[in-house]
Design brief:
Elements (H helix, E strand, L loop, with lengths): L7 H14 L5 H10 L6 H11 L2 E4 L5 E6 L7 E2 L3 H15 L2 E5 L2 E5 L5 H11 L4 E6 L3 E6 L5 H13 L3
Antiparallel strand pairs: 1-2, 2-3, 4-5, 5-7, 6-7
C-alpha cells in the first residue's frame, strides 16, 4: 500500500493526480477520493489547495462541471479526468520515444533518445498503473519498479506491445 505523508506537498500532488484521473464534480467528492487513499482533509484545506493549484471547474461534453488543473509543462489548458486520453498519449509517446525495453525480476529499463526519458516517465505516471509502483527517469533511461516481484518481463512486454500496436 502506498504511504502518503501528511504534508501539504504530498496532499496537493495527490489532488492533481486524482483530478487528472477522475471526473470530480464537487469538493465533497474530492474529499471522499482523498479519504480512499488515506488522506484526511477539511473542506477549507481542500478549497485552499484547489486555489493554490489553479484548479478551475470546466464543463464536460455532457454538460457537467468538473474540477480540472492546468496541464504540466507550462500548458495553461485545464485537464480533467483523462484516463483514456492519457493511455492514448502514452501509446503515442512509447511508439515515438521508446528505443528498447529490458527487464529483470521487478525492474524494467526503457531506453529513449537523449533528453526524452523524463517526458516518457511522466506520461507513464499520468496514464496510471501498468503494474508499476513508479518511475525514475534520467536523460535517456526510464527505470520502472514493478509491484509484482517477478513482474518486470510482463511490463516490458506490455510496453513492447504498446509500441507495436497501430494507432
Amino acid at each position: 500500500m502506498t504511504r502518503i505523508p501528511a504534508t501539504k506537498a504530498a496532499r496537493q500532488q495527490l489532488i492533481v493526480d486524482v483530478l487528472t484521473r477522475h471526473n470530480v464534480r464537487s469538493q465533497s467528492d474530492l474529499l471522499a477520493l482523498l479519504a480512499e487513499r488515506g488522506v484526511t482533509a477539511t473542506v477549507s484545506t481542500v478549497s485552499r489547495d484547489l486555489d493554490e493549484l489553479g484548479a478551475v471547474r470546466v464543463r464536460q461534453a455532457d454538460g457537467t462541471l468538473v474540477y480540472a488543473v492546468p496541464a504540466e509543462g507550462g500548458d495553461p489548458t485545464p485537464r480533467a479526468g483523462e484516463g483514456a486520453a492519457a493511455v492514448a498519449r502514452l501509446q503515442r509517446l512509447v511508439r515515438e520515444l521508446m528505443v528498447t525495453a529490458d527487464a529483470t525480476a521487478n525492474l524494467v529499463v526503457l531506453r529513449t533518445p537523449p533528453g526524452a526519458a523524463q517526458f516518457l516517465a511522466s506520461a507513464i505516471d499520468h496514464a496510471g498503473s501498468v503494474g508499476t509502483l513508479g518511475t525514475i527517469a534520467g536523460d535517456d533511461t526510464v527505470l520502472l519498479i514493478c509491484r509484482d516481484p517477478d513482474g518486470g518481463p510482463a511490463v516490458a512486454e506490455y510496453f513492447t506491445q504498446l509500441a507495436g500496436q497501430p494507432a
